[in-house]
């Protein structure tokens, strides 16, 4: 596998990856991966705000 990657990176020939394949890859990333990361990030931030605004957590130190 590694030798294949080295040969691919060091070769000066045309790319075996077609424009259609790259387009579908970009669409998958921008339509699935990024929105998923954004939703998970927002939900995690809301959970942090919910936990940290509780009265027990508003003390200077939590014991």
UniProtKB/TrEMBL annotation:
The chain crosses the membrane at residues 32-53. Keywords: Membrane, Receptor, Transmembrane, Transmembrane helix. This is Putative FMRFamide receptor-like 2. The gene is FmrFaR-L2. It comes from Homarus americanus (American lobster).
